[in-house]
């Protein structure tokens, strides 16, 4: 089997409703070599997973073009080109709508108030023709292309309804005696056909305008990066020169100057100067952060006071801002699980509507009485006009786009729509301790050595230094910092080995040494003196973590490490409990320290001395009890549990692996973002449900009324013009409801 698989997101042009999206998706999926194609109507893009050895993008483009759409295949600047094409189409649509309106107004006036004026029908026929077949020709062209492939979309409904109304009216204009001879008055519906075209154009304009607002978060993020930057170089005389260059020309290791009030162009490290930087656009935190030499700065953040020079570390698409933009774009283009059901409905929606319209005509012909045909035709046209697949297609993706955009603006990065839709079900949250509940910046508070050492203390300090330098644990870094500050030099050890969840071991001078948690003592059965044992009890009562350094027989030293609880942790736990969510803490730390931290944070359920594999098992245990579990972590040791959880949340300052596995990343690493993220999920899902309710109710009520259901009861028959206006407004109302999410409080 061919293993060469690529996934690419390609902009789509020409889609006007959810049925269009289904048509494009089915055409691409039908191509040999395509594994999966997913079209998102709101973002006007298709995500394709395919085998490049079996199928080319050009063949997909031709297949799509055959039904009236197009793909933008160039990757560089594709989004900009799509926006340009959409802008041009928007302007062209606006012009067509204006001209259509100018021609339609006299048609409506004649049709409503001067029906009996001489040559009135001929004037209306002449004025309506360009509205339909010149300014509204795209409806007919696209319907024809769809029909050739045995497909149908909104254009099919519009073309059928207005085309039938126009042809029927032309017949009645030229051959009125056909009806006169049967004792009937020949009605014309030129004004209905023209007004329907105008209203649908107006609806599309309003919809496009509203849809552009749903992606405003992306536009804001893209606008954060400055276009130019000041590069610091040396001239031939070795003099320092400041030169303005484009951000695109910045290379790694370039030295750049940022003045007060300027945006930082790329990611890097300050090497000269001090300042305060506003990072709210990335982290969501309103307070400016102090920056000094050695501190990291990120593209898009704003320098508040003073100027500084920094060295570029990440440029172009590698910057945090660029990664956030890509993540948000991908997430906004992803499909929520509920959307798949809506797509299935949209795929059969138009054929069902056409069938209902034909049945309506048939029922009127059978039971309509004197004016059966004209009223049946009117009912058929009205059914075709009022049915709106657009509202269905927009219900889910617009809410997802606004929700993910709002999250990004608040420092909550959501990887896909599935995570956003699943978040509202969460009723159990598991928190890692170090770096999640606590600051993750452990500091050594005490190093206590045994009184009876097998060799000189300086040598043993060097062995401990060597063990901890080779370890990747954050506690090891704290020990290394302390020993370096004391001037300790690392010893030459060999045979280093990491014991997951327990510690590290290595050989020195033919003897084995260990450093790690209490589990090591149990594993090695080593002795600990009463002097050190008493110190351990005292330190653990102070919620300090104790690391043991031992040889094969005795504990040689203990190291006490304290990690302060984050200021917002207790508030976050309280907010989660208020939402009815059970909170659990898992840690590899000892029982006493875990109990102390849990008490400070207000956590009722915790487990201490937990291995990385135990965390994943604990997630499974809660899931087996029927809970929907969110796991929050920041380290490599959390990645297994993150992958197992229903919703995985990584702290932004954590490891790359944790962030890669997680579905949601909190840029600021503030736990108070978790209840906000879950609240955002609930608000988004509520909006999706409202949208789907109104989209379905609109069609469920509108179509039977259009067919004439109320006529036997009260003689009411819906006018196609009113149906056209209602159809246009249904899409706009769904998008407007989604936009309300922007102003929701998290």
Describe the structure.
The chain is α+β, with helices and mostly antiparallel strands. The chain is built from 28 helices and 26 strands. A hairpin with a 4-residue loop joins strand 20 (545-550) and strand 21. The radius of gyration is 34 Å and the shape is elongated. It starts with 5 loop residues before the first strand and ends in a 7-residue tail after the last helix.
Give a quick precis of the structure:
The chain is α+β, with helices and mostly antiparallel strands and 746 residues long. A hairpin with a 2-residue loop joins β18 (503-508) and β19.
> What would you call the structural class?
alpha+beta
Proportion in helices: 40-55%
Alpha-carbon Rg, integer: 34 Å
How much strand?
15-25%
Summarize model confidence as the mean pLDDT. 82
**Low-confidence runs:** none
Kindly report the oligomeric state of this protein.
single chain
Number of helices: 28
The separation of the N and C termini measures: 48 Å
Kindly state the number of beta strands.
26
Which descriptor suits the 3D outline? elongated
- How are strands sequenced across the largest beta sheet? 14-26-25-24-15-22-23
Largest sheet geometry: 7 strands, mixed
